[in-house]
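Slide 14.
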Amino acid sequence: MTPELKERLDNLVNQNKIVVFMKGTKLMPQCGFSNNVVQMLNTLGVPFETVDVLADSEIRQGIKEYSNWPTIPQVYVDGQFVGGSDILIEMYQKGELQQVVEVALAS
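Slide 15: predicted structure.
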């Protein structure tokens, strides 16, 4: 990964309380897993940003290396990698996702 790409990803992750690297946008998800994440965050009623990896192949490959996670979507809360669709579904069902985002938004 180039230093420039790492800096771009650092900025995206650190400048947004909640950011989702996904296929498509929150208004037009381009895959079911990305849509699941958007729906959960919308249900929680929290503000979040999205980065469309389909629009930028450098970010699409780089984010996998950045997080050491092979799949998309990827969710970051308060600068920390939380997980992908499956992990978020699990956290959502246990009530953990709401706690994580509330703590992040309060800080």
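Speaker note: The longest strand covers residues 18-22.
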